[in-house]
Write a structure and sequence with these properties.
The protein contains 13 helices and 23 strands. The structure holds adenosine-5'-triphosphate (ATP).
Length: 438
């Protein structure tokens, strides 16, 4: 993991937030390559979940919502974790932190960081929502929250979307957006952060059809990740046991990835029943029933949710792609990212900076630039330039050599197989397009 973190910084995938001030705990910034990776991931999600489906609409709800939303959702009362503080070293732990041995609050229990006995407080509840004030007066009546999940923006807009899009149940609403949680023990790089992005889809179904749709979305979402090139043996489902299930859920599965720090969730598929819409109906006083005019029926739809973290999924892609390989006695670090996800699609190299090679290489680069995110590199030996692109996960290297200026062909090197093919300079765009499409 340390190697990946250092590569991510060195190559401009991820930087610590406010680094020059010593950093801000568990908040991260995406650099030039990282932002491309995450955008590609989100675009593929949006295409699969919205554009390719007639029965799903998109939404972009605001981060700030009426404070009553969070009372109805249960977040004000229930979105809490029990916390333990060390009075000596001031560190904070979740009460279920595996490093804690013994009962916090007990005089014999040691702090896992400073090792002092009896310095831990008994567990106290701590709300994970970030609070701020709306308007000029900092008073209780002005308290507002940064949303801890994007889902509620979908629930409160469900009727608006239904009516404006003329969808019929079963149908879904998809959204990508920021969420904030004042996590107590964040860490593992971008795995658990305080500000993150979610890609959520809420699918509204008739009660009774929920289990069938739950199974459908479970299978679809796993297939989608495999389609991104993630190794199948590192992916699995984890079903929530009855004591893990959220209060609103009838059934829940996590999609887990085998990270260097163990199997961990990066997407949840939940059968949320009619809990959310019923609660919003009660708290808002507005009827949220679906009316099926064809059969003259009214009901509150059940909701099947697919809730993924864009940052966590991006981390899965990076971890899964990272390889160290021996090639002809030399070690290379390579990110074997799926071409559709890779930040740069190709790099263009003149073999040497003379004999017309830079001019032709530049022309090819300018041609490709309009269609793909490509990179031009004329610095250092060709081997070095290939290695730099391997580390960035760039799937294709296009080299203009002595032959190119004679017959207008270039070599295209494949990052994974290392095979080189000669391709007509005028066909390079087409060649890339065929191989980048998911
Ligand atoms: P965890 O148990 O890891 O805190 P959760 O069960 O609370 O996660 P959900 O509320 O189901 O997570 O959120 C759905 C998805 O949002 C998660 O699968 C994850 O990808 C992402 N997510 C949740 N919390 C964070 C966080 N603090 N940092 C980054 N991503 C997160």
């Amino acid at each position: 993991m340390d190697k990946l973190v250092s590569l991510a910084k060195r190559r401009g995938f991820v930087f610590q937030s406010s680094e020059i001030y010593g950093g801000l705990g568990s908040v991260w910034d995406y650099g030039p390559l990282g932002v491309e990776l995450k955008r590609n991931l989100k675009e593929r999600w949006w295409r699969a979940m919205v554009h390719e489906r007639e029965d799903i609409e998109g939404l972009d709800a605001a981060i700030l919502m009426h404070p009553k939303v969070w009372e109805a959702s249960g977040h004000v009362a229930g979105f809490t974790d029990p916390l333990v503080d060390c009075k000596q070293c001031k560190n904070r732990f979740r009460a279920d932190d595996p490093r804690l041995k013994g009962t916090p609050g007990d005089p014999e229990t040691k702090c896992p960081v400073c090792g002092n006995k009896g310095t831990l407080t008994a567990p106290r509840m701590f709300n994970l929502m970030f609070k701020t004030f709306m308007g000029p007066v900092e008073e209780d009546a002005a308290v507002i929250y940064l949303r801890p999940e994007t889902a509620q923006g979908i629930y409160v807009n469900y009727l608006n979307v239904l009516q404006s899009s003329r969808q019929k149940v079963p149908f879904g609403i998809a959204q990508i957006g920021k969420a904030f949680r004042n996590e107590i023990t964040p860490g593992n790089f971008t795995f658990r952060t305080r500000e993150f992005e979610q890609m959520e889809m809420q699918f509204f179904v008739k009660p009774g059809a929920d289990q069938q749709w739950f199974e459908f979305w479970k299978a679809e979402r796993m297939k989608w990740y495999q389609g991104l090139g993630i190794r199948a043996e590192r992916l699995r489902f984890h079903q929530h046991a009855p004591d893990e299930l959220a209060h609103y859920a009838r059934d829940a599965y996590d999609i887990q990835y085998e990270f260097p720090f163990g199997w961990q969730e990066f997407e949840g598929i939940h059968n949320r029943t009619d809990f959310d819409l019923t609660r919003h109906q009660e708290h808002s006083g507005k009827k949220l029933e679906y009316v099926d005019a064809a059969v003259n029926e009214r009901y509150i739809p059940y909701i099947i949710e697919t809730s993924a973290g864009a940052d966590r999924a991006a981390l899965v892609l990076l971890v899964d792609a990272y390889r160290e390989e021996q090639i002809e006695g030399e070690q290379r670090v390579v990110l074997k990212l799926h071409p559709s996800i890779a930040p740069l699609k190709a790099a263009v190299f003149p073999l040497v900076n003379k004999d017309g090679m830079p001019e032709l290489a530049r022309r090819i680069f300018d041609d490709l630039r309009g269609r793909f995110n490509v990179f031009y590199d004329d610095g250092g030996s060709i081997g070095r330039r290939y290695r730099r692109q391997d580390e960035a996960g760039t799937p294709f290297g296009i080299t203009v050599d002595g032959q190119s200026t004679q017959d207008q062909t270039v070599t295209v090197r494949d990052r994974d197989t290392l095979l080189q093919e000669r391709v007509a300079a005028g066909r390079v765009g087409e060649y890339l397009a065929e191989r980048i499409a998911p």
